[in-house]
Amino acid sequence: MPEFSTFDTVLIMSMIGIYIIFTSWLTVKLRSRTNAQFMVAARAMPAVIVGVLLMSEFIGAKSTVGTAQEAFLSGAAAGWSVLAAAIGFLLFGLVFVRVIYRSGSYTISGAIEQRFGKSTMISVSLIMIYALLLVNVGNYVSGAAAISTVMHVNLPVAMVIIAVVSTVYYLFGGLKGVAWVTLLHTTVKVIGLAIIVGIALSLTGGLGPMIKSMPDYTFTWDGKVGPSTIIAWIFGTVGAIFSTQFVIQAISSARSAEEARKSCLWGAMFCIPLGLALAFIGVAAKYLYPDIKSLYALPVFLQHMHPFVAGIVAVGLIASVFVSVCTVALAIVSLMIRDFYIPYWKPTEAQQMRMTHILSLVVAVVPLIFVFTVPEILRLSFFTRALRLSISMVALVGFFLPFFSSNRGATIGLWGSAIMTTIWYLLNNPFGIDNMYIAAFTPLVVMVIDWICGGRRTLVAADAVDGGASAKGSTLR
Q: What is the domain extent for residue 121?
């Protein structure tokens, strides 16, 4: 592959530097000045902007680089990892968004607390924080792959760059600032992906030569991924959308329940072309460069562009990194503040904002501790979605099957699911059963058992009362 000259590299790095400085300035200018703006943008966001935020949560750096990587390994069927989000947003908009919006809570744990109680709320919050921290570990790794390719720095340095810049965005911007800057990030990202698709089409000569020379599975609907995994992806992504903290936070920033519903339709529409594009890019990389590391399936095309064009694409890739990290970190901080800091310390507004800034710095650093233990990115991505799926199952039961609303059953089910899903993931899905299914059914089984046992105890208690009443009546007679 051709290499960039020193001048070319300086040009690209300068473009990235200017973009980072400009967007950092814009974030500070649009910064959240109140806690309401920081958490839910004062409920003033247009539906299309919220739709962009929703899409950015599920098609960020991890999904962008990870889907291309999986397509390199398993064929175009990897696109289902993104198309699943389109299905999820449609279902979320049709089934659940009005219920969540009208609950008045901007956290999934707060909404669930209304149905189950405090211990379930705390469990949901801790499991969500655990899942989202792992999401950002994946974001740091996938983003560093793009940054190291473009800026010729090693992975640890690239990860530090991600931590520092993204922290500036959400530390000052909050949801209000992040929302508007994300619109700019997403525009640049889409332009960059369109350029990569154009370059890939030019280098491969179109789909025809690829279809003729690549293995048969490459362009089938299931590829080497397999139907079971695709179903698990869809199942897990839908479930994750129904419970992911930033999704709840984003729709809470809409002007009304109806606007929140429309934002989900926008999010679904944005996902479809991106999923198809990323699948094609990964397959094209396999066709052109079969011996490269799969992690570089997307950034490898930078080497075939004019330096200025490569700079635009590089800015788009890096923008995708920052969007992903910002939205996830903002969600983590919101959970910590709403579920733990406010109830126990009862701070003033100024104290709350100060603690929000402190926790933002902590959340930026923690993923750096674990980034070197991360396996294949897309696999980690769907493991984190499995963890969130268990929360969705409990939430759906709470809102639509209220007779299962046992605080104890929900709490035990959530922790049992989190532990079992983690073990199943670390054991690499024994017996061919995806950890997604473990996450989905464990809380349901526990809640049903708890309901049955609770029902029996109620019957026994009722019988005891009736028996006591009968004995008393006999004595009186």
A: 6-376
Residue 288 has pLDDT above 90, yes or no: yes
Q: Say which CATH number the domain at 162 has.
A: 1.20.1730.10
Establish if 149 belongs to a structural domain. Answer: yes
Residue partners of 6: CB distance under 8 A and separation at least 6:
none
Provide the pLDDT for residue 209: 94
The Cα 403–Cα 401 span in angstroms is 6
Q: How far apart are CA 210 and CA 206, in angstroms?
A: 7
Q: Return the structure tokens found at 197.
A: 């698709």
Beta bridge partners of 254: 45
Residue 92 in tokens: 């979320």
Determine, yes or no, domain membership for 372.
yes
Nearest to 381 by CA among 109, 170, 85: 85
Number of folded domains that form the chain? 1
Separation CA 294–CA 64 (nearest Å):
13
pLDDT at 378: 61
Instruction: Please list, in sequence order, all residues whose beta carbon lies within 8 angstroms of the beta carbon of residue 339, skipping any fewer than 6 positions away.
Output: 107, 109, 110, 121, 122, 125
In a domain, 411, yes or no: no
On whether residue 441 sits in a domain, the answer given is: no
Asked whether 174 and 330 are in contact (CB, 8 A), the reply is yes
Tens digits of residue pLDDT in 295-321: 789 888 887 888 888 888 888 877 877
